[in-house]
Each structure stands twice: as structure tokens, then as C-alpha cells.
Amino acid sequence: QRCFVCGEMGAAITCQEKGCDRSFHLPCAPEGECVTQFFRLYRSFCWQHRPEQAVPATPQQDTTCVICLELVDDKKSYGTMVCPACQHAWFHRSCIQEQAVHAGVCFCCMHCQNKDQFVMEMLTMGIRIFKR
């Protein structure tokens, strides 16, 4: 299979959406804005079929990431996410992924401390949480 992100052969991951034949390498997934869910069925999705947050919140002007304190995009996107519980904690995908790696089983929203809803949403959105 040819990777739709880098164009090289050997792509082993195929989008799980019925009728979609996009394949990609796991390391190419972030660049292609693909989501791989590292729980239950371990499903993967291309940029067009990836899950999106259903939270109706949008960031206010000049909203910053609660982790790095840099500005986030002006809407939810692949790179900008929000806590589904409090809808006030905004963060960059790369920042929350790094936080998940360091927090392990203690991973929760840094703003409201919600764990259950927050963790399930992050797993669905492709954030890998390491259980040490």
C-alpha cells in the first residue's frame, strides 16, 4: 500500500471508514492529521473520516493552551482541542499528548480535574495514554 501522506510504499494502516482506501504509515499520521485510537479495537482514520469533538464550545479571542500558554487556533481542529467536561481548558494536540505521556494513569483535565469524561474523549481523539 502507498502512504497517502508521504507517498512511499509500505503503509500498513488503512482508514476504518467503509469505502475509504487511504493507507498511511503510523509515523506519518500526525502530518496527515490522521487519528489512531489506542484502545478497544485500535481503529485508525484518515483526515477526512477522523472523529471530531462534539463539544459546542469555541475558544474566545486570545485563548491560550493551558499547558504551553501559547495561543490556540480560533476553533476546534486537529491541532486544537478542548476539555469536554468543563469546556474551558483549551490545548494543542501536541501539548496534551505530551501531558498524557507524563501523567499516565493520573491523566485528567488540568482545569477542572475531570478524569472519566476527559480521558474517554482524549482516547477517542487519538491521544495515547500510557498506563505505567
From TrEMBL:
InterPro entries: EPHD (IPR034732), PHD-type_Zinc_Finger (IPR051188), Zinc_finger_PHD-type_CS (IPR019786), Znf_PHD (IPR001965), Znf_RING (IPR001841), Znf_RING/FYVE/PHD (IPR013083). It comes from the Eukaryota. GO terms for cellular component: nucleus. Keywords: Ligase, Metal-binding, Zinc, Zinc-finger. One of its GO terms (molecular function) is zinc ion binding. Residues 65-113 form the RING-type domain. Residues 1-50 form the PHD-type domain. PANTHER family: PHD FINGER PROTEIN, PHD FINGER PROTEIN 7. This is G2E3 ligase. It comes from Pluvianellus socialis. The gene is G2e3_2.
